[in-house]
Amino acid sequence: MGNQNSMMRNKQCKWWQVFNALAVMIVLVLNACGVSKSTKVESMTKENVITETGPVYKALLETMTAFSKESTGEHKKDADDFLSGMEKDYNRYQFNRSVMDSLAGFLNGGLVYIDVYGGNWCSDTKEGMGALTRVLDGCKFPASCFRYIRVSREKKLIDIHVEGIEISKVPIVVIHNKKRELGRIVEVPEKGSWESHMLKILNKAFN
Predict the structure, then answer these.
(1) Residues 84-97: pLDDT tens digits?
(2) What angle do helix axes 55-70 and 123-138 make, rounded to 10 degrees?
(3) Packing angle, helices 97-107 and 194-206, rounded to 10
């Protein structure tokens, strides 16, 4: 009887050891998966985080900040909303790297100019300028080749007079060189991608 009890205790002990070993293995596997997943997420996050804004964004920010300071009432509110929205969209816009590499070949040589006719009061302008300036900065587009021209609610130009431009919708993003207009994006880009739409325009213009 004593021998039988001893054998049963030994079997229970062995099963308990096996169970503990399996439990440890499961914990190790789960931890490994967790670390791998965490590392992947962290890597993706770091790739998308912007640590410093570029010159095109800064130039537009300076222009809009100055306008906000000199404005009152509804115009000041529009400018402040514009600034807040632009910062958020600049940081969260996700571009296509391969398309950006192709686009940069057209944009970083100083031979292409971009004029934006935008309304600070317009939701499409507010939502689009952060994303657009991020794409331009990502392509190392010279800030000196970028111009933002304000449009009133009555669709009239505020800052300057430009020959041959008719405003019915905003924003209008006009891409041109010193000789001619190459193309334009009205209100929003095709499929929500600024870089793809601009690349389409430039490929058609130069190829």
Answers:
(1) 888 889 999 999 99
(2) 150
(3) 50
Structure tokens at 140: 């190392």
* Per-residue pLDDT reduced to its tens digit, 5-40: 454 455 454 554 555 555 555 544 444 444 333 333
Residue of 105, 151, 106 whose CA lies nearest to 129: 151
- What span, in angstroms and rounded, lies between the C-alpha atoms of 107 and 102? 9
For residue 39 the two structure tokens come to 């590392």
Q: What residue segments make up the domains of the chain, in order of their start?
A: 1-49, 55-206
Neighbouring C-alpha atoms within 13 Å toward the C-beta of 7: 4
Region label for 55, one of left (φ > 0), alpha (ψ between -120 and 50) or beta (otherwise): alpha
| pLDDT single digits (tens) 118-177 | 999 999 998 899 999 999 999 999 999 999 999 999 999 988 888 888 899 999 999 999
- Tell me how long the chain is: 207
C-alpha to C-alpha distance for 80 and 71, rounded to whole angstroms: 10
Q: Is the dihedral of CA 160, 165, 167, 169 positive or negative?
A: negative
Using an 8 Å Cβ cutoff, are 90 and 50 in contact? Answer: yes
Distance from C-alpha of 67 to C-alpha of 61, rounded to nearest angstrom: 10
For residue 168, which of 182, 181, 154 has the smallest C-alpha distance? Answer: 154
What class has domain 55-206? Answer: alpha beta
Report residue 109 as tokens: 């040589």
